[in-house]
Amino acid sequence: MEFRRFRGTDKYLTSSALESAVNCALALERPLLVRGEPGTGKTLLAEAIASALGLRLIHWPVKSTTRAQDGLYVYDTVQRLYDSRFGDGDVKDIRRYIKHGPLGQAFASRDRVVLLIDEVDKADLEFPNDLLHELDRMRFVVTETGDEVIARERPVVVITSNAEKELPDAFLRRCVFHFIEFPEQDLMARIVRVHHPDLDQKLLDQTLRAFYSLRDVDGLRKRPSTSELIDWIAVLRRAGIASVELDAGMPFLGALLKREQDLLAFAEATSRGRRPRA
Amino acid sequence: MFVPFLYELRDRGVKVGAQEALSLAQSLGLGLHRGTLDGFYEVARALCVHREQDLDAFDRAFAHHFRGVPDDALALTDELLEWLEQPAAKRRLTELERQLLERIDLAEARERLRARLAEQRERHDRGNRWVGTAGTSPHGSGGIHLTGIKVGEAPGGRGALEMAAERRFRDLRSDVTLDTRQIEVALRRLRAFVREGALDELDVEATIDKTARNGGELEIAMRPPRRSNLRVLLLLDVGGSMDPHAHVCERLFSAASRATHFRELRTYYFHNCVYGRVYESAALIRGVPVLQLLQDCDPSWRLIVVGDALMSPWELQSSGSRWSFGDDSGAPGIAWLAHLAQHFLHSAWLNPEPAVAWYGTAEVIRRVFPMYRLTQDGLLEAVQHLMRGGGRL
Lengths: 278, 393
Prior knowledge:
The complex is a heterodimer. Chain A is of the alpha/beta class. Helices cover 41% and strands 15% of the residues of chain A.
C-alpha cells in the first residue's frame, strides 16, 4: 500500500518520532492523538500535515458545551419554523435544514481532508466515547431523513488534548498516540529561527538562556512555552532591545508569565538572590 | 520478535493487547519503521503507548529488551549466517518471507551485518535476542535491518536505545504521588448530576423543538434544574506514621475542598483508627460522635478514608469482652471501621504507602474497605469504584 509520507514543512519542524507517529496514523488510517504542554504546537501540527499533503483542513474547536452530535449534523428546526411562518423556501424538504458539522463535512467532502478535533478534553467526559463509532466506521445516518453520510476518502483525523483529563481507554486504543515533548535548546533555536530568520545570534542565545532558566523557577503554575517565547522575541525586536538578562527587570516579562502568582514567584526567586541555574 | 516485547510491556503495566500487536505488525509490514531499530522504537511507541504516563514504562521495557553487548553479538554472527544459509530453516517461512530473503545477496548481508555489529554501541545482555531472534522473526530479511543500529541518521545522532535509557518521561509517570491539579482532575470524575425537583426551568431547546414539530404553534417545555447530587465524607488520618504523607494529604484536602461539583463535602480527622469520635480539626479537637455523623450522612454519601492503615494490632482489636456502639464504649477499632463501611453504599480507603507495605493491620482493614494507593492511578481507580453501583466489599 502506498501513502504520502509526512516530513514536516518549512514552517513546522518535526522530530523523527513525530513523523513516525504521523505516518503510522496515515498508513493505518487511524486518528492521531497529540498531547503535550500548551503552546508546543499541537494545533499547528494539523495545519502542517494539511499543507504538506496538500489537503484541505477542517477545524473543529471543541468547547465545554460541544456534543458529539454537533460534529455530525444539526437539524435547524428554528430556521424551518421561521420559514414555515414567513413562507421562505420549501419547508417540506427537511434536507434543506440539515447542516453538517465539521465531522459531517469531512465525511461528505469529495476529496480527502484533514480533520482537526481541537482540545478534545474540554468537552464532557463522555464526548470522545460518543465519537468512537463514527470515527471507526467513517459513516453516520441522519435520523431525520434516513440518509447515510459515508466518507468517500477517509479523512486524516488529528485530535489534540491538553492532558488535563484522562481520556477513555476505548478511545485511546483506537488512536495513534504522540506526546510532544518540550523542545530542547538546539531544537528550540531552530524553531525560533523559522519564525525570526534574521534574529541576531547573541540575542537568540540570551533569550534562550533566560527562557530555559525561567522555566526552571520553582513554583510556576504555568511555565512559558514555545509560542510565548516566539511572541516575547517578537516584542523584544519591535522594542529594539538588543540584549536581555534574567533578573527582576527583564523586559516584557508579561509576554512569558501570564499569572500574577507566577510573577510573584519569579520576583521571589530573583530577589532571594537564589538565581535559577543558567 | 516483538511479541515477547509486548509481554514485557504488559509486565510493566502498559496495557497492550491484540489490537496493538496487529497494528504493529501491519506497520512493520508497511515498512514504517524504515528498517531500523530507531524507527521500530518510534512506531511501537506511537502504537503501544496511549498516555504519556506510560512513556517511561515503555522506555524501560525497550531499554531492557533491546540492550546489547557488541562482543556477544559478534559471536552470534556465524550462527546467524549459518542459519541464513541453511535451507531447512527457511522452510518455516512463508512464501513472501522467502522471497524477501532471497532478494538479499548473502555476501552483502554478511558484510552489512558485520558493519552494523561493528557500529553497535550498546550493551547486550540477552545473548541471542539481538541478532538471533531478529533473524527468526516473521520479518526474516527485515530482521537484519531491525538489528541494525542506526548511528548517523537520527537527529542529533542519538539512537532509540540511548533515548530510551535516558528515561526522559520519568516525570510523567502516574504511579508517583500527586500534585493538586492531578487530584482535581481525578476528583472531577467523582460527580453525579441529576435533574430532580420541581419543573421550574424553561427548556429552551425542547420548547423550540416541540414548537417546530408542532407546525409553529407554541408549545412550552419545562424541566427541573440540574444539580450536583454528590456528597462526600472525607476522613483523614493525622499524626504519627502519617506525618511523612502530610503533604500529599494536604493537597488532596485542598483539591477536594476546591472542587465545586460536590453538593456537600465534610472533612474529619482521626488518629490511627476511628473509634467513637472523629474530629473537626487536625489537632483532634472538637470531636463529633461517629454515630451522630452516620445519622447526618445517609448511605448515599461517598466515604473516602485516607490513612496508612498502620497501627499496633491492639488498636484495631482492643476491646473488653463486652462492648456496644456508643461514644466511648470501647468497641474495637475494626468494629467501628466495619460499621462505617457497612453504613455507606460507596466507600474507599486511600493508602499513601506502597502496596507492598500493606500487611498486618492494613491487611485486616483491606478486608473491610476497598484499598487504593494514593497515586494518580490509585485515585482514579478509587473514584471509578465510588461511582460504580454497590461499593461494599
